[in-house]
User: Which sequence fits this backbone?
């Protein structure tokens, strides 16, 4: 591949991404990651998330049959965060980090990832996310509800039981804070939500589109930082997943399900990723123009090869993309839309 150096502006993060796709095939003598598929049982008696098993807190899970939510036994923030913190030295600042941390088990089955679930099962998860966002977002002591899933050992998951997490906090996470500003300023300047213009541009261009149906779509954005980085969302701009109508939620579940099974089909393995729902803050502010969407960041750029963050990203603060979004989208479109393990 001939060298191509290009900067592409990321309008939601308001930063530049350096695209140098010819680096994907550079000689690699460093570490590789072995992520071979391991057959999992439908029920694991040692799993702290499986039905009827005991968790680390000593609580016992019910014999649940669908989506199951419980307060995290090892939360990152909690309602009892100390208020009497010692003042920091000099110019530094500190504050209590309070909130609610929850775990969302997608299914009672230990082996059933979102990609292997039915679209109806995926929609049940989305319905749960809507309920959790509404419940936690109504609390005056919370400003933000971050819903996410870490999938696979490559991103540090210690329990393979399909699950996600919710961090509802008294502060807004920085990425969402940046998006709020970007969306607000774009709406003021252009009179159109930024998310709708991104979707319209991707639909018109077509090269990076993965899936589209009546009200939802998925694409690898023009400004993607990771190989196979994918955005999924409604065609219209809404502030949060809670604002989706029933048909929009069903369409979004269909699109999300197809994207995840295409990931698995690409290399015939459970594809690792970090998935985060980008919802508007719940601080009772005016977030008109914010565009709810789901972002999926897979860490692998090739089978066994992680995307390492190094000098440009950590030291320089600018992301260097080793792949072209148009090429990665074509790869995903070329694989079947039926999961490779459906008859396994």
Assistant:
């Amino acid at each position: 591949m001939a060298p191509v150096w290009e900067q592409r502006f990321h309008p939601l993060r308001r930063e530049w991404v350096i695209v140098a796709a010819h680096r994907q095939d550079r000689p690699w003598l460093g570490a590789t990651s072995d992520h071979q598929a391991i057959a999992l049982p439908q029920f694991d008696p040692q799993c702290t998330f499986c039905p009827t098993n005991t968790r680390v807190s000593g609580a016992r899970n019910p014999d649940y049959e669908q989506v199951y939510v419980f307060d995290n036994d090892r939360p990152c923030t909690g309602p009892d965060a100390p208020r009497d913190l010692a003042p920091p030295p000099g110019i530094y600042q500190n504050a209590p980090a309070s909130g609610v941390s929850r775990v969302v088990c997608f299914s009672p089955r230990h082996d059933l990832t979102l990609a292997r679930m039915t679209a109806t099962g995926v929609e049940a998860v989305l319905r749960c996310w809507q309920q959790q966002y509404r419940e936690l977002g109504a609390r005056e002591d919370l400003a933000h509800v971050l819903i996410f899933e870490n999938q696979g050992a490559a991103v540090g998951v210690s329990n393979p039981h399909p699950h996600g997490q919710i961090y509802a906090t008294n502060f807004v996470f920085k990425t969402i804070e940046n998006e709020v500003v970007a969306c607000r300023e774009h709406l003021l300047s252009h009179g159109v939500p930024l998310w709708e213009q991104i979707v319209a541009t991707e639909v018109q261009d077509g090269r990076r589109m993965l899936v589209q149906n009546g009200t939802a779509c998925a694409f690898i954005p023009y400004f993607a930082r990771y190989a196979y980085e994918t955005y999924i969302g409604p065609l219209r701009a809404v502030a949060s997943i809670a604002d989706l109508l029933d048909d929009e939620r069903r369409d979004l579940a269909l699109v999300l399900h197809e994207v995840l099974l295409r990931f698995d089909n690409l290399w015939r393995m459970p594809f690792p990723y970090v998935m985060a729902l980008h919802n508007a803050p719940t601080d009772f502010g005016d977030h008109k123009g914010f565009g709810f969407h789901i972002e999926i960041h897979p860490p692998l750029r090739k089978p066994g090869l992680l995307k390492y963050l190094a000098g440009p990203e950590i030291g320089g603060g600018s992301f260097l993309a080793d792949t072209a979004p148009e090429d990665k989208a074509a790869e995903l479109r070329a694989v079947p839309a039926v999961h490779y393990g459906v008859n396994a």
